Amino acid sequence: MTLSADEAARFAALLEENQEALVAAWTDRVTTSLRGRLSHAELQRQTSEMRRAFQQALAGAAQDLTTEAAGELRAQLADLSATRARQGFTATETAVSVFALKEAVLNVLDGSDATTLRDYVAFSSFVDEAALFTFDSYVRVREELIADQAEQLLELSTPVVKLWEGVVAVPLVGTLDSARAQVVMERLLQTLVDTGSPYAIIDITGVPAVDTQVAQHVLKTVVAARLMGADCIISGIRPQIAQTIVALGIEFGDIATKASLADALRYVLAQTGKKKGR
Amino acid sequence: MERVPILKIGDILLVSIQIDMEDQVALQLQEDLADRIVATGCHGVIIDISALDIVDSFVGRTLATIAAISKVLDADTVVVGMRPAVAITLVELGLSLPGIRTALNVELGMDLLARERGEDDDEPDDEDEDEPGASAVATS
């Protein structure tokens, strides 16, 4: 049910005439729903801006949200949802901020004749549409946030650092699943090529648990590095991890394993020193 | 049929594979290389595969055969410049190219060969100590 031109005009006038009462009632409702997590003054500013946007849209004879006259309103709603999503409010709390307008309008409506009811239903569906739009924007912003964070996490968790001339290290932090293992492997091998380092140290101090799958990933990385002509050393094996490795029967074969990164570096330097000596 | 050029640099034969490694090309390279090692008396062979996108099991086996043939003719073989993607694929396929020594690039490959040669002249007990440091894949 869309808003007809005169219904829109009537509501625009109504929003204009009763603006103070409306904003007050609306702000009260929203403040209650958010349980004081935003200040009254802040919310009052938000609602009065929203009221103006609604009023402008209706004065411009907007029949639904997609029309050009509602452009300003859409921007306001999107802005509101984006702010709320970033501040950690739930989707319901965000949508209620818009729905509360309906109740506020009901309070100021003069319910004496039948046309008022029809008007109100039409207006109400307009507000519903606005609230749905808020919901969509909210979800979109949240998804963007999640995607950003996932990407940052992947970036953060797989740095390849140069420790010494010809020695690079990968400090692994966090659980190693297949996707991450793949990223680590590719980045390490690419760094080996780029820097021409014949030694790589894989430090697993930050890996909370080593099961057969994690060991498999690490072993694959080591074998791939060897195929390319670089040697890998595994370091940072904590006591419990060492026990788990033995209990699970994981074989590291002839791959050098060291207790700490310092030991691994010392081992590599001894190796290179021996070669330089010749 | 295309042929892979074999360049002689000092005591080393450098083979840089810039074309698709079809089976015939691989076999031809194997023959050519054996001829050249005998003709030049070189003691080192470097095979650069940095331009290869695909190393299949046949190419892998040919490389191993070349290494073995060179060894018989008293020349050490090093395969250099394997791309990360190729290495990952080989590992996923379970091919670890046994018997082939590898290095990251031509320069490190030449270092490796020089070291090997140096070791041969050294006393035998020194040789054992240096074994784990070499980038051999023979044991993996």
Structure in words:
The complex is a heterodimer of chains A (278) and B (140). Chain A is α/β, with parallel strands linked by helices. Chain A is built from 10 helices and 5 strands. Chain A has helices spanning 5-17, 19-34, 40-59, 71-87, 91-108, 114-157, 178-195, 212-228, 239-248, 261-277; strands at residues 161-164, 167-173, 199-206, 231-235, 256-257. Chain A has a 5-stranded mixed β-sheet, sandwiched between helices. In chain A, helix 2 packs antiparallel against helix 5, helix 4 packs across helix 6 and helix 5 runs antiparallel to helix 6 (114-157). The radius of gyration of chain A is 31 Å and the shape is rod-shaped. The model of chain A has no long low-confidence stretch (mean pLDDT 83). By secondary structure, chain B is α/β, with parallel strands linked by helices. Chain B has a single domain (6-133), classed as STAS domain (Transcription Regulator spoIIAA, 2-Layer Sandwich), CATH 3.30.750.24. Chain B is 47% helix and 16% strand. Chain B has helices at 23-40, 57-72, 84-93, 106-121, 124-129; strands spanning 6-9, 12-16, 44-48, 76-80, 101-103. A 5-stranded mixed β-sheet of chain B has the order 1-2-3-4-5, with helices on both faces. In chain B, helix 1 (23-40) runs parallel beside helix 2. The longest helix of chain B has 18 residues, at 23-40. Chain B is globular, with a radius of gyration of 15 Å. The N and C termini of chain B lie far apart (35 Å). Mean pLDDT of chain B is 82; it is low at 123-140. The A-B interface holds A 185-186, 189-190, 192-193, 196-198, 220, 223-231, 253-254, 256, 271-272, 274-275, 278 and B 78-80, 82-84, 86-88, 90-92, 96-97, 101-105, 107-109, 111-112, 115, 118-119, 122, 129-130, 132-133, 135, 137, 139-140.
